[in-house]
Write a structure and sequence with these properties.
The chain is α+β, with helices and mostly antiparallel strands and 92 residues long. It has three helices and five strands.
Length: 92
């Protein structure tokens, strides 16, 4: 199934401020989605893809490193659409 990734303006601005290595990992994830699709990319433990709870129910996150996460949601149709909502420094 073809996967398309839409990055919100908010997420783009956040990405621009992040260290280069974090940006690169994010774009590697986007590339993997385009080439392999979400089902295959989720099998990779390197991104720690997980469903979120509470106010963020229906959204998912991936780890870009120990601190940074990308928050996204899936919009299914005749193809997979991934909308990246934000990229931020996750507080533990």
């Amino acid at each position: 199934m073809k996967t398309e990734v839409h990055i919100t303006n908010k997420a783009r601005k956040q990405l621009e401020k992040l260290p280069r290595n974090i940006q690169l990992k994010f774009y590697v994830w986007v590339q993997f989605l385009a080439e392999l699709g979400m089902a295959e990319v989720r099998k990779s433990k390197g991104f720690h893809d997980e469903a979120l709870k509470g106010d963020r129910k229906g959204q998912r996150s991936i780890r870009l490193n120990r601190s940074y996460r990308a928050i996204y949601k899936e919009i299914n149709g005749s193809y997979e659409l991934i909308e990246v909502l934000e990229v931020n420094n996750h507080e533990y």
